[in-house]
Amino acid sequence: MPIVDGLDPEGSIWHYIAITLREQREQRNLSGNKLAQRIGCDRSYVSRVENGRIHLSRAYAEKIDALWETRFAWLVKLAEASDGGDWFTGLVEHEERATHHRMWEALIIPGLFQTEAYARAALAAGLAADIESALERRLARQRAVWERPNPPHVSAIIYWPILEQPVGGLGVMREQLARLLELGDSPNVTVRVLERSVGAHVGMDGSFTLLSFDGRDIAFATAPERGRLIVVPTDVQQFQVRYDRIANLAANRSASRALIEQAMENYR
């Protein structure tokens, strides 16, 4: 992929779009002026996009997709969400479409698995200013995934301290762990635990999710205040490798179930 000076495709979706547009145009032996004519824009527009001076608009991205059967409009939508700080909108949309969710969670029961009581207690700890609105968004995310006609396959690996961290009291935790077991019994869901005995591991860097759809993967890395969507293939691959390394260390499905059942006994 040709790299333009000053552009960082690994750090910016907009830069990735600019570089990819140039690459796709050159593969088709088109000049910038020829492409501009075909999509009906100013002669300098394509050059300015490819040099990172302006952002590709969604309208022109859709015209390019129609010409080349590419996915520039999708990338523009991701970039707009990321720039506006609205990474959550992008995450929710892709959760709804994904056919496979792979998640590593180091701190808290994954949002898609949370009971209403557990979610409310977690949000009340300071994770949201408007608890009820945030709770409704979380429950809506769950409905969009679990109540689909063809629910996705979901593979979750959780870190052992999550089972021992009481959130919302004994009853809330017991209900939450029972929910984990219930979902884990579904043929399309796998819940595994990374045990204390594993010691240091690559998952200590933080929680993340991999979502698969339309023949591609994206990643979402959790961070305080704001998460990060990752769409550049080389960056996504790093999360895929990290997930595989964590999965190789996690207890198997039946052993993980036994660990969750054992943890439930502490919340009587």
TrEMBL record:
Q: Which domain of life is it from?
A: Bacteria
Under the heading SUPFAM superfamilies, the entry gives:
lambda repressor-like DNA-binding domains (SSF47413)
Give all residue intervals belonging to the HTH cro/C1-type domain: 21-75
Output this protein's name.
Answer: Helix-turn-helix transcriptional regulator
